[in-house]
Every structure is written in structure tokens, then in C-alpha cells.
């Protein structure tokens, strides 16, 4: 049993750190120079799915698109809001159209398919040569549209082009940590993967598609899946088509600034990725990708299984303290050493990326530690969502709260973060009192992560 615990804690992390370190190394040594791209003559349909989004966010998104100066565009807003909000939207629509903005609103009384259903509704009514899905809290560089249209028009086998994700907001502790972490992780797995010739998945916002391919070959998005980008990316791979990545053109996305919003977002992503893995693994294995590309795509969709297994191993280690508190981890020091080395290589590239944006070394380390603490605290939710996907339990699409919706609280919840912080602290001390130093320190470190989240975001821990 002790070997099982150690393997659960070390092997998934070894895979994660080694793979991401390789991608980060490749990205750091691969420069993509995009020549200036001229605006295309083709038309673009912007699709904005909304449900309980702050009205000011929607207004800003529409104004931003109009301000890009695109010659031929249309904005299709698909609303799944309550009927009471419908008139507010249509009043705003009349104002936009009086000003000459080419905006349309589709209000759905029944949100069939939720986000993917909304995307399909707009897709089949769109007239643009290209499709760009836009979240109300994201912005894009004009160069992404210009260069993506140039690439798509000159490469018949390319169905989509993805831009580089950048943080739009760095005004809170959490959003700052997530923003810098996102810069590193997305840069590594997208730019690094692209440089290695591996498959690139579309992003939910930040991808320009060929409309004709979406309609005639892919037949739109799969309304049974809640993770639309990973799902359609798997089918793009199956059809032998390509998705290209532009590292020089940015898409700015708003990161959650509250732990509650992040918990909802990450739970949905964990379920969605695992659900796509189960539904589309045959498409990936049956694609024209090489063996390495297929394996990597499967592992990419398995990314939330990694922290889930580590969490289970850590809980088993904690329970073991009440049964036989010997140093489980010390018995397999070769695996611990290998994990430490892989963490060092990963952390080296991570530190370099974050340090580009933060003046002090201490501030960089604090930012990295904050991100690691939050990721650890989310582990039980990764496990819960992953298990629901594996057991094929259907869930409704839960949108990430934005604006004022991030701050609203409804009812008391079980504070799992506090419970785990106490469990790990107690069992860690038990190990230390029995001279099981390594196992004790591992649990104390995990307890510190949960304790930090409880301290910083108390309201989000105790209330939904």
C-alpha cells in the first residue's frame, strides 16, 4: 500500500512537470516572427453567447468589436437570459442599430445545449466567411484577425487559428497570480506544442474559424459536450485538418478575481476535459496524427486527472498516519528525488516567465506560491468533477461568474478547504512526532496551501 501511495503522489506530477518543462524549453527556443498582415476583404461573424452577464460587459464587447474597423462584420448575440432581461437587451439592440452597428440578438426561451447550443444557433444563421467566438470579458488584437485570415486563406488544410492568451485584469491577488500563471502555461503548451509540430486545440475565445468548414465538415459544435473547444479540436484532428497558433497576436481574457468564480470555472473545465476524453478518444486515435501527437493529445485531455490522483494519494497518506505512521515517502527516495528534479526544471522556466513582469524576486516567488496554493486547494473539486465525467453523470453548464456576480453569495457550504487544512496539519504533526519527516512535511505543506486559501478567501470558502 505504501508503494501505491508514493506512486499516486509522484508519477502524475513527474509527467506533468517533465512534459511542461519540455514544452517551455521548446517555446523559449522557438521564435515565431509574424510579418505584418494586411486586413482581409472577407466577412467575419462574431458570436457572443450570454447568460447572466453584466450588461456593461456586453456593451463594452460590442463597442470594442465595432472599433476594430473591420469593413464587413456582424455581431450575433445569443441570449439565454431570463425573459425579464430580454427587453433590456432589445432596447440596447435598437440603440446600437440606430448608430449603425451591425448587431443582432437572438433570445432563446429554452437554452438547449447551453453554450454549445447557443454557438450552433448563431453559426447556422451567420453569413460571415469566418467565425470568431467572443466572451464578453475578452478582447483581441486586430492583428489576430488580419493574420489569421491570411493564414486560413492560403492553407486549405487549416480550419482555425488561435491567438496568444494574455491576462486582461491583474487588479486582485488571485487574478494577478492566475494571469502570470496563464502566460506561462498557455505559452508553453500552445507555443511549445506548435513548435514541436504537435496538435493545437482551439481556445473557447481567441480562435478564428473558417465558417464553411464548421458548417460542412464539422457540422457545428457537439451540444452534448460542455467543453466546446477541446471537443471540436478532437474532431478537427480526426478529419486531418490543422489548427495553427499565432504567438505574436494576443487575446486578452479576464481571469476570475474571486476563489468562488475560479472554483466554478475549474470544476467545469475538469469535467469538460474528461468528458471529451471519453467521448472523443477514438477520434484522436483514428486521426492522421503521428503516435507522439496522439499520445500527447490524450494526455492533454487527461490534465485534470493528474491533480485528482495526487489528491487521492495525499488523502491516503493522511489516513495512513492513524494506522501506521512510518515515513512512507522516505522508503522511495528515488521517486522523490526525481520529482524534485523535475519540479526544479519546471520552476526554472516558470520563474523566468513571471520575473519578466514582476520587478522583485520575492514578488515573483510569492506570486508562484499563491498560484500553487490555489491549485492545490482546487484538487478535491478536480477529483469530484473528473469522477462525475468518468461515471457519465450529466451536469449543466455553469458559467464563470463575472463582475457583480462574482461577489454574490447565496448559502452556506461545507468548507472542505478548512477540513482538509486541519486533517493534513494533524496528520502531518503525527508523522513528525514519529520521526517520519518527509511524509510529515508533505502534509504540512499541503495544509499550508489550504490554510492560505481559507485565510485569503474566507467568504468564498464558507459560502456558495
Q: Report the average pLDDT across residues.
A: 92
The unreliable regions are none
Domain count: the total is 2
CATH superfamily of the largest domain: Spore Coat Polysaccharide Biosynthesis Protein SpsA, Chain A
Which CATH architecture of the largest domain would you pick? Alpha-Beta Complex
Q: Which of globular, elongated, flat, extended, rod-shaped describes the shape?
A: globular
Kindly describe this structure.
The chain is of the alpha/beta class and 464 residues long. It has 2 domains: 2-24 and 303-462, no CATH class; 35-257, Spore Coat Polysaccharide Biosynthesis Protein SpsA, Chain A (Alpha-Beta Complex), CATH 3.90.550.10. Helices cover 58% and strands 11% of the residues. It has helices spanning 2-28, 55-67, 83-98, 114-125, 142-154, 173-195, 211-216, 228-238, 259-285, 291-301, 305-320, 333-355, 361-377, 379-390, 416-433, 437-456, 458-462; strands spanning 44-50, 73-79, 103-107, 130-133, 138-140, 158-167, 207-210, 242-253. The chain has an 8-stranded mixed beta sheet with strand order 3-2-1-4-7-6-8-5, sandwiched between helices. It comes from Desulfurococcus amylolyticus DSM 16532. Residues 130-319 form the Glycosyltransferase 2-like domain. The chain crosses the membrane at residues 304-323, 335-351, 412-433, 439-455. One of its GO terms (molecular function) is glycosyltransferase activity.
